[in-house]
């Protein structure tokens, strides 16, 4: 049996008629940049989250960069974030001349440890970027309290977490700005790169809309420097079809995660994902930890089960950031977990027999 960690094909086949029709409609109209479907999708996401502004951009990475540009990040200013995340979170800070100041992660949730943030704040600190890793909300109450006391911006990196909830309220609605990715593997995935920025701040929203179109409100009249970063109409049309299924897909992910948890909770060498009781964790990834990670991955690969490591090298040890001066040992929990995490197949279309096969195979490995 061959089981991918994720495949978009099954989802497409289930929705083929709807998606093909939506794409054909765009093709027949020919408005591929900021067409009607983009505005409609933006409005529906804003309604889904209960926010004033949802602004489509070209990718989740662009969403982060534009958010930092919108708050006016200047060279030399600092942004506090986690080293245990995808590279884009820190990459965008550095590209704008800022410095990512890392805070190690919480041992249970793998998100930024809010109790370690305050000691990293300096007169150069501009913002905090919490990442809702794997679909698990970060500890927003503590983060917002610190940000308020020190007058810092909060930019939620919600790339992996659309639909998750913290204490009954959807993520993307806590910070000054939130950034979303619609990369094809995400819980709500496009057929290419796509992203979104959400905010309740009218001034920030106006600036974000300008930045995504070369810093202009009126064509050929450029008030500020910007980017070419629009959500294209074809992707918006696909996402419009998919959005109405997001909650049911997330519910299915939670159901699959429960099956995995129940099966693995008594295995001595496995740490299953932890979720705070007040959080709705939507399992963009189902990620276990084991000191025998590489052996297990090899064993599962030989069984036809695809796995992945999210993430094998924490950001402070990435060569691209070597000029920042971080070293081995600076963030011990992130470093330890990067050697232990393993993501198992997780997508709503997983069949019961596939889930059972993954479970049986993992158990077989640990019986050896």
UniProtKB/TrEMBL annotation:
<dbReference type="Pfam" id="PF01041">
    <property type="entry name" value="DegT_DnrJ_EryC1"/>
</dbReference>
<comment type="similarity">
    <text>Belongs to the DegT/DnrJ/EryC1 family.</text>
</comment>
<dbReference type="InterPro" id="IPR000653">
    <property type="entry name" value="DegT/StrS_aminotransferase"/>
</dbReference>
<protein>
    <recommendedName>
        <fullName>dTDP-4-amino-4,6-dideoxygalactose transaminase</fullName>
    </recommendedName>
</protein>
<dbReference type="GO" id="GO:0000271">
    <property type="term" value="P:polysaccharide biosynthetic process"/>
</dbReference>
<feature type="modified residue" description="N6-(pyridoxal phosphate)lysine">
    <location>
        <position position="186"/>
    </location>
</feature>
<keyword id="KW-0663">Pyridoxal phosphate</keyword>
<dbReference type="InterPro" id="IPR015422">
    <property type="entry name" value="PyrdxlP-dep_Trfase_small"/>
</dbReference>
<dbReference type="GO" id="GO:0008483">
    <property type="term" value="F:transaminase activity"/>
</dbReference>
<feature type="active site" description="Proton acceptor">
    <location>
        <position position="186"/>
    </location>
</feature>
<dbReference type="GO" id="GO:0030170">
    <property type="term" value="F:pyridoxal phosphate binding"/>
</dbReference>
<dbReference type="InterPro" id="IPR015424">
    <property type="entry name" value="PyrdxlP-dep_Trfase"/>
</dbReference>
<dbReference type="InterPro" id="IPR015421">
    <property type="entry name" value="PyrdxlP-dep_Trfase_major"/>
</dbReference>
């Amino acid at each position: 049996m061959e089981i991918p960690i994720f495949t978009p094909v099954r989802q497409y086949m289930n929705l083929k008629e709807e998606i093909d029709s939506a794409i054909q409609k765009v093709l027949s109209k020919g408005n591929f940049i900021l067409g009607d479907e983009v505005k409609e999708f933006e409005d529906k996401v804003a309604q889904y989250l209960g926010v004033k502004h949802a602004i489509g951009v070209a990718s989740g990475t662009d969403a982060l960069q534009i958010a930092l540009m919108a708050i006016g990040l200047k060279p030399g200013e600092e942004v506090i974030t986690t080293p245990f995340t995808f590279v884009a979170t820190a990459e965008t800070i550095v590209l704008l001349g800022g410095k990512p100041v890392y805070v190690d992660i919480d041992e249970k949730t793998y998100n930024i440890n809010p109790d370690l943030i305050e000691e990293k704040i300096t007169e150069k600190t501009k913002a905090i970027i919490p990442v809702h890793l794997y679909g698990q909300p970060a500890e927003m109450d503590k983060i917002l309290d610190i940000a308020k006391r020190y007058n810092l911006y909060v930019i939620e990196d919600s790339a992996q977490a659309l639909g998750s909830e913290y204490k009954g309220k959807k993520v993307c609605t806590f910070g000054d700005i939130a950034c979303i990715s619609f990369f094809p593997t995400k819980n709500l995935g496009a057929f290419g790169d796509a992203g979104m920025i959400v905010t309740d701040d009218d001034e920030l929203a106006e600036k974000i809309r300008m930045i995504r179109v070369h810093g202009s409100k009126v064509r050929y009249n450029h008030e500020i420097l910007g980017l070419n970063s629009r959500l294209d109409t074809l992707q918006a049309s696909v996402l419009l079809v998919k959005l109405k299924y997001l909650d049911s897909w997330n519910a299915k992910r939670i159901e699959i995660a429960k099956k995995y948890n129940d099966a693995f909770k008594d295995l001595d060498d496995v740490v299953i994902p932890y979720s705070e009781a007040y959080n709705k964790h939507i399992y963009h990834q189902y990620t276990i930890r084991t000191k025998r990670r590489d052996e297990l991955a090899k064993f599962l690969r030989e069984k036809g089960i695809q796995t992945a490591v999210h993430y094998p090298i924490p950001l402070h040890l990435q060569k691209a950031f070597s000029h920042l001066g971080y070293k081995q040992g600076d963030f011990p929990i992130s470093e330890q977990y990067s050697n232990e995490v393993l993501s198992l197949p997780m997508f709503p279309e997983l069949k019961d027999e596939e889930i059972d096969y993954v479970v049986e195979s993992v158990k077989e490995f640990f019986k050896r």
